[in-house]
Amino acid sequence: MNDGTLMPVSAAEIEWTDEADVVVAGLGVAGAAAAIEAARAGADVVALERLGGGGGAAAMSGGFIYLGGGTALQRALGFDDSVENMKSFMKAALGPGVDEAKIDVYCEGSVEHYDWLVGAGVVFDESFWGEPGWEPPHGEGLMYSGGENAAPFNATIPPAPRGHLPRRAAVTGGEQAGGYMLMKPLLDFVDDLGVRTLYDNSIRSLVVDDDGRVVGVVSRSFGNDMAIRARRGVVLATGSFAYDDTMLHDHAPQIEGRPAASIESHDGRSILMGQALGAATAHMDATEVAIFCDPQLMARGILVNGQGQRFVTEDTYPGRIGQATLLNQGGEAFVIIDEASYEEALTTESTSAMMRATPKWVCESVGELEAEIGLPTGSLSATVDLYNMHAANGTDPLFGKKSQWLKPISTPVAAYDLRGMTGGFTLGGLKTTVDSEVLHVSGVPIPGLYAAGRCTSGVCAGGYASGASLGDGSFFGRRAGVSAAAAG
Amino acid sequence: MNDGTLMPVSAAEIEWTDEADVVVAGLGVAGAAAAIEAARAGADVVALERLGGGGGAAAMSGGFIYLGGGTALQRALGFDDSVENMKSFMKAALGPGVDEAKIDVYCEGSVEHYDWLVGAGVVFDESFWGEPGWEPPHGEGLMYSGGENAAPFNATIPPAPRGHLPRRAAVTGGEQAGGYMLMKPLLDFVDDLGVRTLYDNSIRSLVVDDDGRVVGVVSRSFGNDMAIRARRGVVLATGSFAYDDTMLHDHAPQIEGRPAASIESHDGRSILMGQALGAATAHMDATEVAIFCDPQLMARGILVNGQGQRFVTEDTYPGRIGQATLLNQGGEAFVIIDEASYEEALTTESTSAMMRATPKWVCESVGELEAEIGLPTGSLSATVDLYNMHAANGTDPLFGKKSQWLKPISTPVAAYDLRGMTGGFTLGGLKTTVDSEVLHVSGVPIPGLYAAGRCTSGVCAGGYASGASLGDGSFFGRRAGVSAAAAG
Fold it and tell me: Which of B258, B285, B422, B426 is best to mutate for the A interface (most A CBs within 10 A)?
């Protein structure tokens, strides 16, 4: 990105064309939450959205929001959860290197945040989906979404489901997914509060006064530049850098060429604009990693790497499987499943049923299958023998897979080829305080600048749980709006 | 680091107390190389060193310099190498995400760089060490130092040893290691060229003029601040951030609490000072990882993880084993070796002999050993059975270990516990051009600012080879000196 616009512009050189108390860049989940809270605090807010309508990547997502500590939905469905258990799980599963202060306030504020979303018009169905899967098949409101009920976490931290999903709505020709059903009420709320929304309007530069305070932005709409003064603060909320090739190469090369669950406007621009002012970043290498396989199949089979070895508990959150595959196994993975388990999986419900395509290999013996796949002679056989020996006793001492999924692998036996079947989005970005102030590398906030969502490093460092991005984006987006409205 | 000094200082507010054409911060290998080349180009150079003498982490290191493409030493010892093979290996082994342009110029300039070092007074012994090890035992001049002659690289890229080591010198009570024997002549050269060296002098801030050009530094010596004008340029060469807890937590948490092969003044300050001006960084998560075990033992045994599975070819560069252990296995590793191989290893020479402490467990059977270590029942037995079956035929289809190291594991059999036996230093830092200009996030160089060594991202992204840091530090240090002297 060598167009020079990333350099901050001096306020002395600007003729303002518009102004507001708070300028929000990006109308995905973080920007909408920021705009709402800034407006509710009495600020005059203008929100810029690069695309022709609001919603961002959030509106196209499944809609998971990671919440817990005893939300009304958890309680209604009979699940015990506590703030402490939620903290323990997030610190164990989303690291190493997590921002502990951020996780603390996130967990402590989670019950209130759920109520806030409901108050904003987001509807959660009082139903639970307990089967393996990426998403619940009928818009159920609650699901495990981070491996809480799987090894190694379930041995030490009492599990609770924390993936909260907005209820889907039937529309002509299908239904609206959870992400849309999250963003629709939030965007309506933005409008109802009188926030001015400027679409097809892309932030280009930050404007800084002589004291280094961010006092506005330059944006562009249909080729025309605007200079919008922000009397109190600017909130950056333009999403990840999953679609910027240079940034991926320099920071997260493992997903070069394979962005997923992201949108093309995620070009990392807000991160770079912040860095141009000396902002610190964190965990720029971290990525969510999806693996394109039905979890109903994975849980019933075993996953092996290019050496025919198991490497992860197959009944955990599929995003953990994706990370283990791409980050630790160089992207090499195969699902091994016998005919009986395959047939059983086909009878289950899953939103990932399109990932159940016919197995690539089907053989009468494990030895044949091993040869067909091209695994080292004896490797898969040894793995299956060891797995079967323990599975017959209902145990998995290697990875702690739960007994309900443990059954010796029989014949005929089949395999899916998952090489190249991973993709993801970036989790790193601007380093922010718990009040969503953007931190300078010297450790102090940059005056007038706030950020939230995937242009920031949030509650995740190395690990991931579905709902963590909509969760911290909306939670710290709200805080960005509150902070910006109170500044100046 | 919240003392405010990282904020750039305006030249308008400065009263200069000293000046030079080029100011170099840090007198390790990169700073010394920069000072030499700037002075040779006719610049008046002042070099600031935080400690009481020059040398930095380089002087305390083993002294490997990664060079190839047919250096005089390689040719004298009968090794064929080519620039293309060197490029291919570095791009395959040091990624993903390597800076290809940087590797290209590095490989193309490697033969000349070797000659330059020799011309500067660095002596390389015309001898080769071909045994597994971290360093050669007698100051031999050449050794494999990146896994070139091991799987998977040796199957496709003709291997050549590229670890060049300065000859050690006998001194009273022992001998000087290679790193000292590299830095001594370079520092003498610095002095001979008339570079002014200021010790106990630590850079505090960069000074910037109204156009954003770096025109000097503020430094501190024994509590007194100095403002040193740089008529042409400033070169940052103050080393890694392995000793800054916050930066490690935010970028490379895998080595939190376990810095190695680094020095306490490696606080990342140059990276932060660059970032305060909007500099880009790259691969801040990347780390070298040492594993504290004698490679003579590892090559003769097998390495297994907490599931009793092998995970790496045991005869490769031990730094690759360290990375595989810490990054992919959560730091869990055990060496399994039978009595005969153990006895054989004890007869070999190794600089890592102090890492041969008595094995933690010795048993009469693999099954007993597995139980003693606490590995899952049957796991290590299955691994050894599979390994032995192939080793009897002289093959290792899982990881490609060379036949010379393949022998079925017999009994009695022992194990070393390598959990917690890893440590390392950081490889990420400022993003620079092939001419060592520091790049702004907008993609253009920051005028007047140059950097080299481990405060920059060099030829390594994810992977590592011993000698890559002294190699790119000295190579791009020279380029920083040339560029700074030519600027202004």
Answer: B285
Last residue of a domain, one of B401, B421, B441: B421
Q: What is the pLDDT of residues A279-295, one digit of tens each?
A: 999 999 999 999 999 99
Q: Rounded to a whole number, what is the distance in Å from the CA of B270 to chain A's nearest CA?
A: 11
Whether B271 and B400 map to the same domain: the answer is no
Here the tokens at position A120 are 């904003």
- Full residue range of the structural domain in which residue B352 is found: 292-421
A429 CA to chain B: closest CA distance, Å?
11
Contact assignment for B256 to A390 by CB distance below 8 Å? no
**Domains contained in chain B, number:** 2
* Domain end point (choices B391, B421, B451): B421
What are the pLDDT digits (tens) for B432-480?
A: 999 999 999 999 999 999 999 999 999 999 999 999 999 999 999 999 9
Instruction: Decide if B395 touches A, using CB distance below 8 A.
Output: no
Assess whether B78 and B147 both reside in one domain.
yes
- Cα nearest neighbour of A460 on chain B: B250
Size of the A and B interface in Cβ pairs below 8 Å: 157
C-alpha to C-alpha distances, B9 to A16, A66, B138, B271, nearest whole angstrom: 28, 43, 50, 16
- Residue A100 forms contact with B (CB below 8 Å): no
- Average of pLDDT values for A268-274? 97
What CATH number should be reported for the domain holding residue A284? 3.50.50.60
The total of other beta-carbon atoms located within 10 Å of residue A340's CB is: 15
Select from A477, A435, A465 the least CA-distant residue to A65. Answer: A465
Q: Which residues of chain A make contact with B7, given a CB cutoff of 8 A?
A: 278, 440, 442
Tell whether B411 and B430 lie within a shared domain: no
pLDDT at B1: 43
Mean pLDDT of A10-38: 97
Query: Which carries the bigger pLDDT value, residue A295 or residue B260?
Result: A295
Q: What is the CA radius of gyration of chain B?
A: 23
Task: State the burial class of residue B2 (Cβ atoms within 10 Å of its Cβ: 0-12, 13-18, 19+).
Answer: exposed
Average pLDDT of span A447-466: 97
Query: Is the Cβ pair A443, B251 closer than 8 Å?
Result: no
State the pLDDT at residue A1. Answer: 43
Q: Between B4, B278, B379, which is nearest A442 by CB?
A: B4
Whether B269 and B308 share a structural domain: no
In this structure, are B61 and B159 located in the same domain?
yes
Are A250 and B398 in contact (CB < 8 Å)?
no
Specify whether A161 is located in the same domain as A197: yes
Residues 32-61 of B with CB under 8 A from A: none
Peptide bond into A412 cis (omega under 30): yes
Q: What's the longest Cα–Cα distance across chain B?
A: 77
